[in-house]
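#lab-general

N.A. 3:47 PM
ok so I finally got the sequence cleaned up, no stray characters, all 195 residues accounted for. can someone with queue access submit it? mine expired

B.Y. 3:52 PM
send it over

N.A. 3:53 PM
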Amino acid sequence: MTDLVLRPSVRNSAIRSRVVGVAVFIAIMLVLPTIIGGLPGLIFGVAFSTVIIAPIAALLLRSRVVVTPTAITVRGMLLQRRKDRATAASVVRAMLVVPRTGLVDTVFVLDAKKRPLLRINGNIYRTADLDRLVQHLGLPTAAVQHPVTVPQLESMHPGIVSWVEANPFRVGCVGAGIAVVVILVLASVITAVTL
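B.Y. 4:20 PM
back already:
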């Protein structure tokens, strides 16, 4: 069995739109400061553009999915997750509705107890590459036939995502409650100190 290596593709519409958006932004950041500030403006524009370009370039250059006869490895910009291929028992493939991102083709590799081993975010890979990945793994596959939110996917496949991700409303309420408590404590401390 040969190895399978998937790399990000600029042919992916999500990446292509981001690259175009970043290119337009960088062009503006190079032209406007140069017109307004001359050479110092150009230096600022180049420095600021580098801060924007570096993470995107790192994501595109470092990310990949590698499937060998013994392991499945998913490498991102900073982290790498490796799982023994023998522990992979099934695959769930779903088109997730992600706020502010849109639809994201996602592949979940599960163990025999239906717990997630790996999650492959298809935002940077072509659909055809994800098709090849699922076929190469040769595992029983459950494909969700229509786009779903993360909580909907969690109800269909319990335990496939984290509790935090499956309960965004509760997490938001807890976060808002903590923010209110912190603000009240700070306000009472400031009031006590100023009196």
